[in-house]
Amino acid sequence: MERPRLRNPRNFAVGLTVIVVCALALRVAWVLIARRNFALHGDDYFYHWQANALADGMGFINPFAWKALGRIDPSAAHPPLYSLYLSVFSWFGFATPLAHRLASCLLGAGGVLLVGLAGRRIAGRRAGLLAALVGAVYPMLWINDGMLTSESMYVLLIAGMILAAYRLWDTHTWLNAGILGAVIGLASLTRPEAIVLVPLIGLPYLFARGTDVKRRVGLFLVVGGACLLAILPWWVRNITTFEKPTFLATGNGSVLQIANCDSTYSGPMLGYWDIQCATVDRPPANAEQRRLQKNSKVPGLVYLIAQDPRDESIPDATARSKGLHYIRDHLGRAPIVAAARVARVWGVFRVQQQIDFDVLFERRGQVPSWAGTVMYYALLPISGYALFVMYRRRRPISSMVAIFAMVTITTAISIGITRYRVGADVALAVLGGVGVDAWWRRHRPTTTNPAETRATEVVGS
After folding, report:
1. Extents of the domains making up the chain
2. 75: closest CA among 313, 318, 315?
3. Angle between helix 151-171 and 422-443 (nearest 10)
4. Model pTM greater than 0.85?
C-alpha cells in the first residue's frame, strides 16, 4: 500500500540532523570529560592495540602477546570489524586511545541516525524524531562510546538491522533481503551472538502475508546467503589459521569457563563471572608471570594469554571443555544459574549489585550506570505499549521480539552483564519513540492533516 506523503518532509531531515549533532556532542563531551586519560584495561586494550597493529600491516594479531612479549601471534579472540574500523583512523595518524574513543563517538551518532530512520519506517516522522531523541540521550547507548569496545559499532548495526528488517517487511524485495542479511553478517563480525538473528528474524518471513510460498522461502535464503557472504572471508581465515575449528571468535571458551564454577553457581556472584574460575587450577605464577602482572604497560592478567605460546584456539578449546564439564557435573543447578544471568541482564535480580559490578568491573561510571538503569526502567512500559499498538495496527513485531530473544539466549548460556543487553537497548530506543508517538496520537489527535495521521497507521517511510 502506498503511503501518503507527510507534510513538510524537510522538517524531519532538519530535526533528525539537529538530534544527531547533539548526540555526537554529548558523546564527545562524555569522552573528553570522563574518559580522556582513562587507562586501558581489557577489551579496550585489545581493540586499541590490534587496530594499531592492523594499521602497521601486522594483521589481526594478539595485542597482549605483542605488547608483553613481542610475539606476533594471530588472534580471533574478538571478531574483526571494530578493530578494522579503528585501524583506519590509526593509519591516518589518529592512533591514541583518545582518538579511538572519539572515532567511536561517530559510530554512536550514526546509531542515533539509524534509530531515527527505523522509528520513522515503523510509525512515521514524529515517531522517528522521538526515537532518535531517546537514542541520543539514553545512557545505555552513549556510555559505550567512551568504553572503546565493540558495542559502539554494534549499536549502529543493530539499528541498521531493524531498519532493514522493516524495509523488507514493507517491500518483500530481493535487494532488501540481501541488505538485511549483510547487516546481520556485519553485526556478527562485531559481536558473534548476532548470527542467531538469521533464523530469529528470517523465519517469520516464511509466514508473511501477501507473497507466495516460493518467494517467502527465497527471501529467507537470500537473508542467510548474504549473511554468509559477509562473514565468509573471516571464517575462511580462521579455519586456515587455527588448529581447532574456529568460526567467529576464539573467546567463547574463556567466557564459558569464567561463568561456570562454584563462585558463580551460588553466593554473591550467582549468575555473574569470576576470574577465579579460570585461575583456580593453574599453577602458582612464576617469576616472569609475576613480572607481567606488575607491568603497568599491560593489563594485570595478560599473562594468562601472553604466557601461553600455543595457538590460541587450543587453550580456548580447553577452557570450553572445562566449562562444559562443570555444567554437566552441576546440571541440577544450571537452570537456576541461567535464570539468574537472564534476570541480571533484564534488571530484576540484584539490581544494586549489578550497578556496582558495572562500575567496578565494567568501569562504566557511577552516574551513567544509575541514569541508564533509571531510563531503562522508564522505557520498558513505553516499549511494551509500542509493541501492543504495533500489533493492533498489524505492524510486524517479530524483529523486535527476535532481538529480545537473542539477548536472553546469549545471556542464559554466557554471562549476566549489562552490556550484553545493548542490542535490546537499541530496540528499546526505537520502541520508546514509537510508544510516545502512539500515546500522543491517542490523547492529542491531530485535526489539521488526516493524511499524516493515517500514514503512521500504515507504514513508515
Report:
1. 9-456
2. 313
3. 50
4. yes
